[in-house]
């Protein structure tokens, strides 16, 4: 082979190597990084409206004017952020902005399959259209990936109803300054609707999602009492067993298990104890033992003799949790997990042992002006209100609670028969920081379950969060509403639930 030919081949290899290295560098470091800040469900109905937020960062060495390639059904909006990406937007080297996208499933065809958003350099300073060059998109795991399920007969609420419920929810958010509302309406024969309004985090204005975990407060009571009813069916306890069999030193120890579960024991509510509340506010992250909560309640006189009246008391359910632990020789969280969560497949529902919420989660807010109280220790509520869940699991629990799926038919019949009319003031979910007002959260209350306008379930409020979970025995419909706010003097999810019923009627 001639030396001239060898030299040519050598130069060829050299330039190929350079091109290979350059392409590797480009592949290793994209010109723009686009990272999702929240998650989307994999499947949605065609009447869904969702939001997602991306952090877009300019990784080049030059200031760039950027825009987004259009995607059917996807629009860019600005929730009022100073660092929002408003098309077209300009980023200096290393700068970033928040790209907020609204997805209207009715305009997305069959959905978006691992596509975009694609961010490109504009064609020029006066031409905002995306260039064909210098583009980037998120990693596969962060790309838009949503399947749209068609609104065939009975699968989606009629448009007029859906629109009315959305408008009502938006009005409530604005009227009461609620950071976020997530609601689910499932009505057999009419269809379903999921509403996601507002922000999971007020600092970053990250959109809220049905996938977000929240603290579900007193809905925990419906789980704890369900375990108690299971133990009664197993012959390990009875509804007439007295508290004195386990805690004879407590006031009103002649109260029965039934009276503890249906709030007729007369035992003082520990969250109304001023000294205990003062200790709590000194450190919201403090860990509390059930015995500390029960002892604080026992320092106060009972409201009335056991069985003489009705008064909501978180102490009742903390006591039931402690009795369950004595009988089972296992912690209450384990009993709930093995007896309820695992059999029902509630994989996104937890009884936490730490401050942490599973990701993704919505921050919880309260007081005025609003403070982030997400990291309030759930041990302060214990078996009366410590649990965490999310929308889809709460829907499944509403059905299980309403139909008695983890109880014997006889025990479920007793539970429903236990519902008795109540009159009360202040609100049943009394928590520190919430004004004492009269509010009808239930028409009737029974064994860890309440009834309101023919629907049965439970309401909830804990630091930063409030919720309602309801099931209709006649229609088998379910309505779940949660908000990441508490302490406003009214139980807003219940008020909104009743407004929903007016619209749906």
From TrEMBL:
Q: Which organism is it from?
A: Legionella steelei
Q: Where is the signal peptide?
A: 1-27
Q: Which terms are listed as keywords in the entry?
A: Carboxypeptidase, Hydrolase, Protease, Signal
Q: Which domain of life is it from?
A: Bacteria
Task: Specify the protein name.
Answer: D-alanyl-D-alanine carboxypeptidase
Instruction: Check the record and name the Pfam families matching this protein.
Output: Beta-lactamase
Molecular functions (GO terms): carboxypeptidase activity
Q: Which parts of the sequence belong to the Beta-lactamase-related domain?
A: 165-488
């Amino acid at each position: 082979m001639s030396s001239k030919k060898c030299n040519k081949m050598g130069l060829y290899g050299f330039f190929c190597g350079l091109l290979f290295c350059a392409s590797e560098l480009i592949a290793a470091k994209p010109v723009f990084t686009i990272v999702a800040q929240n998650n989307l469900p994999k499947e949605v109905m065609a009447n869904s409206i969702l939001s997602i937020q991306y952090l877009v960062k300019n990784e080049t060495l030059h200031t760039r004017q950027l825009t987004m390639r259009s995607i059917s059904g996807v629009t860019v909006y600005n929730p009022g952020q100073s660092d929002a990406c408003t098309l077209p937007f300009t980023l200096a080297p290393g700068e970033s902005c928040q790209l907020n996208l609204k997805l209207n499933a009715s305009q997305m065809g069959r959905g978006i399959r691992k596509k975009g958003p694609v961010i490109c350099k504009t064609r020029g300073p006066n031409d905002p259209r995306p260039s064909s060059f210098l583009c980037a998109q998120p990693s596969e795991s962060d790309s838009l990936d949503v399947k749209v399920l068609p609104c065939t007969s009975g699968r989606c609420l009629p448009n007029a109803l859906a629109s009315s419920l959305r408008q009502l929810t938006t009005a409530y958010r604005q009227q009461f300054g609620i950071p976020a509302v997530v609601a689910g309406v499932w009505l057999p024969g009419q269809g379903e609707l999921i509403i996601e309004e507002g922000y999971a985090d007020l600092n970053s204005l990250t959109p809220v999602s049905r996938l977000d975990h929240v603290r579900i407060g007193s809905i925990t009571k419906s789980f704890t009492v369900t375990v108690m009813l299971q133990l009664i069916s197993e012959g390990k306890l009875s509804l007439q067993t007295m508290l004195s069999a386990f805690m004879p030193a407590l006031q009103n120890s002649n109260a029965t298990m039934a009276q503890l579960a249906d709030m007729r024991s007369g035992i003082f509510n520990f969250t109304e104890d001023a000294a205990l509340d003062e200790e709590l506010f000194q450190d919201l992250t403090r860990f509390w033992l059930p015995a500390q909560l029960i002892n604080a309640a026992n320092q106060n006189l009972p409201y009335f003799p056991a069985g003489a009246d009705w008064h909501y008391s978180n102490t009742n359910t903390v006591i039931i949790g402690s009795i369950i632990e004595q009988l089972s020789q296992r912690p209450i969280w384990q009993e709930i997990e093995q007896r309820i969560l695992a059999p029902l497949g509630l994989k996104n529902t937890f009884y936490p042992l730490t401050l942490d919420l599973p990701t993704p989660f919505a921050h919880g807010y309260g007081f005025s002006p609003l403070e982030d109280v997400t990291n309030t220790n759930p041990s302060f509520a214990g078996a009366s209100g410590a649990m965490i869940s999310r929308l889809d699991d709460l829907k499944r629990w509403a059905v299980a609670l309403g139909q008695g799926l983890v109880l014997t038919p006889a025990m479920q019949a007793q539970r429903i028969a236990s519902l008795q009319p109540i009159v009360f003031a202040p609100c049943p979910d009394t928590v520190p920081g919430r004004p004492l007002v009269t509010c009808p959260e239930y028409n009737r209350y029974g064994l860890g379950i309440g009834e309101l306008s023919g629907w049965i379930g439970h309401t909830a409020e804990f630091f930063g969060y409030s919720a309602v979970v309801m099931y209709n025995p006649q229609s088998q419909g379910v309505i779940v509403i949660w908000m990441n706010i508490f302490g406003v003097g009214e139980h807003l999810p219940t008020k909104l639930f009743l407004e929903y019923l007016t619209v749906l009627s």
